[in-house]
Design a protein that fits this description.
With 102 residues, the protein is of the alpha+beta class. The protein is built from 2 helices and 5 strands. It has one domain.
């Protein structure tokens, strides 16, 4: 579904490309990738957290956010487990709640 919507919007995907730098300019953003320079009006960076370095987690997203002056909170370890609460309203919709314990 996401890919279909992106194709409608003429979105270009660059997979398995190492991003060496990101810069903002008058037309949008310029990215230095491994072997090429790419420009775009809008940029979406989807990164995970730092909790799973074995799966490739890195501080890349945090560094880019800091580079552009976004407020980045310090990270800390937490013990997190899911607490499933199934409650049904009159329309019989149910949801799951998450609770994280520091």
């Amino acid at each position: 579904m996401l890919v279909d919507e992106c194709e409608k919007g003429n979105v270009t995907f660059r997979l398995r490309s190492e991003v060496l730098s990101v810069a903002k300019d008058e037309t949008g953003f310029t990215l230095e990738l491994n072997g090429m320079t790419v420009g775009c009006e809008k940029l979406v960076i989807a990164t995970g957290g730092l909790s799973m370095p074995g799966l490739g987690a890195s501080p890349f997203g945090y560094k880019i956010a800091e580079q552009f002056g976004l407020n980045v909170l310090p990270t800390r370890a937490v013990w997190c487990h899911s607490l499933c609460i199934n409650r049904c309203s009159k329309s019989y919709r149910c949801w799951r709640a998450w609770r994280c314990l520091p």
